């Protein structure tokens, strides 16, 4: 990996495009280096993972709304929409919109945390939709997904958005555009312009993840993916973009991030170096913010040792800066302690999550967030006894570049009314690559079967898994089969007259 220094340049000091970050990213995408077998295998895992969480959310309000909007844009030989028959096709940007929203709704797919947050699997819906519409092979799709994951991970490693209250989809627009460019084997210049346009159009604030978190949290990444597709289309037709988008005098860095004195370092593969970043990412076993994954597993373990939760006086979670300030009491969000809060808010409240996981010894993507469950008096009492505090040790581990040191856990201190204490800690979730039970192909398939049970038929489940496992060998006319079909009677809202479309 090469480390690239990124800083702001005044307009009077010309920065050649070959020295700009967006150009270097485009060069990575244009590099025809083969995708390695272990990367290929993980891409298959994540395609299965995305499909499982998308179908589990197929009838939730936000995915249903996105689907209705997409179905208003049919296109012969277009892209498929989750839940719909494989022979029904729609415009790629709208299919990506619907599928991306379904994937993101439950906060249950893969993650990468470094200088910022990300869900790299959000790259899959837009790249897959374009692949289906443009008649790509499975091999080309794999190439595009490897590039999309690479750019996403590298940007998240080097540039922090959240400290400036910018939502992490600002890294997704460029990565999706780059992945599409890599898949279509576009010239470096076209990919360069696409990356810049995609960044320019996908900068938004983190209010979407603050206060009363709404359904927009599910729409945000699909919005970025849709805009990335449109950016690539324009640039393929010869249009340009604001440039240099990262280093310019009035650029994103200059006015939205660290400013004119900024100095970022972004790692990128060198020429001929394989794109392996997907292997640094990790999926979720539990439907909740990733920084809660290890704490849920830890709550299960600690809860077995407690016979009466009302005997607890206080619970202190010693954790990283990110966990404390984003999903902990350091966020100073009263909504995170509110029994009437939305599901989107509750899955960003480690206080709520830990309380329920401690009491139940289990976590369910629907039942654990049910309004009745959140309002249970004994849970509310326990929930309000929990607080977080930053521990420099956990912050340091969170930011470590050593994958064997990097951690997203905490030390938990449970103090009882009689003065006794129960302490335990966990660095990474059981499903993490360095956890007690790392996710392998069998776990991804089991997650798919569990989440789609009762929604799709066994034959359809088997058909999709068989197709996904052949991904690198799929022919262009088979790529449309990389979709999960739900019986029509079980799909709610395939049309309405409430909107404009």
From TrEMBL:
**EC code(s) of this entry:** 4.2.1.79
Q: Which Gene3D superfamilies does UniProt cross-reference here?
A: 2-methylcitrate dehydratase PrpD
Q: Which domain of life is it from?
A: Bacteria
Domain (MmgE/PrpD C-terminal) ranges: 286-471
According to the UniProt entry, its GO molecular function terms are:
2-methylcitrate dehydratase activity
Domain named MmgE/PrpD N-terminal: residues: 19-263
Specify the enzyme's EC class, one word: lyase
What Pfam families has UniProt attached to this entry? MmgE_PrpD_C, MmgE_PrpD_N
Arranged from A to Z, the UniProt key words for this protein are:
Lyase
Subunit structure and binding partners:
Monomer.
The family line of this record is: Belongs to the PrpD family.
Q: PANTHER family this protein is in?
A: 2-METHYLCITRATE DEHYDRATASE (PTHR16943:SF8), 2-METHYLCITRATE DEHYDRATASE-RELATED (PTHR16943)
Instruction: State the name under which the record lists this protein.
Output: 2-methylcitrate dehydratase
- Species of origin reads Candidatus Phaeomarinibacter ectocarpi
């Amino acid at each position: 990996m090469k480390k690239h220094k990124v800083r702001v340049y005044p307009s009077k000091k010309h920065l050649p495009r070959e020295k700009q970050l967006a150009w270097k990213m485009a060069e990575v995408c244009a590099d025809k280096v083969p995708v390695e077998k272990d990367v290929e295998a993980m891409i298959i895992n994540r395609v299965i993972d995305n499909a499982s969480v998308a179908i589990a959310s197929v009838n939730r309000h936000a995915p249903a709304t996105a689907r209705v909007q997409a179905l208003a844009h049919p296109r012969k030989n277009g892209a498929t929409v989750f839940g719909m028959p494989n022979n029904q096709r729609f415009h790629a940007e709208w299919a990506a919109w619907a599928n991306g929203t379904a994937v993101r709704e439950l906060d249950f797919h893969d993650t990468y945390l470094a200088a910022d947050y990300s869900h790299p699997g959000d790259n899959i819906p837009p790249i897959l939709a374009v692949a289906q519409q443009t008649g790509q092979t499975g091999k080309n799709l794999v190439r595009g997904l490897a590039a999309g994951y690479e750019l996403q991970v590298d940007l998240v490693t080097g540039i922090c958005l959240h400290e400036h209250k910018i939502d992490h989809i600002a890294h997704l627009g460029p990565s999706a555009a780059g992945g599409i460019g890599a898949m279509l084997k576009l010239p470096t210049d076209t990919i360069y312009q696409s990356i810049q346009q995609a960044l320019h159009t996908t900068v938004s604030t983190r209010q979407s993840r603050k206060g009363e978190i709404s359904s927009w949290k599910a729409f945000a990444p699909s919005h970025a993916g849709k805009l990335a597709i449109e950016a690539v289309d324009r640039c393929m037709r010869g249009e340009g973009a604001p440039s240099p988008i990262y280093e310019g005098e009035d650029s994103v860095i200059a006015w939205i991030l660290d400013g004119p004195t900024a100095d970022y370092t972004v790692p990128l593969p060198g020429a001929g170096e394989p794109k392996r970043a997907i292997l640094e990412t990790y999926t979720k076993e539990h439907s909740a913010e990733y920084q809660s994954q290890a704490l849920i597993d830890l709550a299960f373990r600690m809860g077995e040792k407690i016979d009466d939760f009302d005997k607890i006086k206080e619970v202190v979670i010693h954790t990283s800066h990110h966990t404390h300030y984003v999903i902990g009491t350091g966020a100073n969000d009263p909504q995170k302690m509110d029994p009437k809060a939305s599901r989107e808010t509750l899955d960003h409240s480690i206080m709520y999550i830990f309380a329920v996981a401690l009491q139940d010894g289990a976590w369910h993507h629907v039942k654990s967030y049910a309004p009745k469950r959140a309002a249970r008096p004994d849970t509310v009492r326990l929930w309000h006894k929990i607080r977080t505090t930053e521990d420099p040790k956990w912050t340091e581990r969170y930011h470590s570049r050593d994958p064997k040191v990097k951690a997203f856990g905490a030390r938990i201190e449970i103090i009882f009314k009689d003065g006794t204490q129960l302490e335990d800690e966990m660095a990474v979730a059981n499903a993490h690559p360095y956890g007690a039970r790392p996710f392998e192909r069998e776990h991804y398939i089991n997650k798919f079967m569990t989440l789609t049970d009762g929604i799709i038929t066994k034959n359809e489940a088997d058909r999709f898994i068989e197709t996904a496992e052949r991904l690198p060998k799929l022919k262009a006319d088979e790529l449309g089969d990389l979709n999960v079909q739900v019986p029509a009677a079980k799909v709610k809202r395939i049309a309405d007259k409430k909107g404009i479309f």
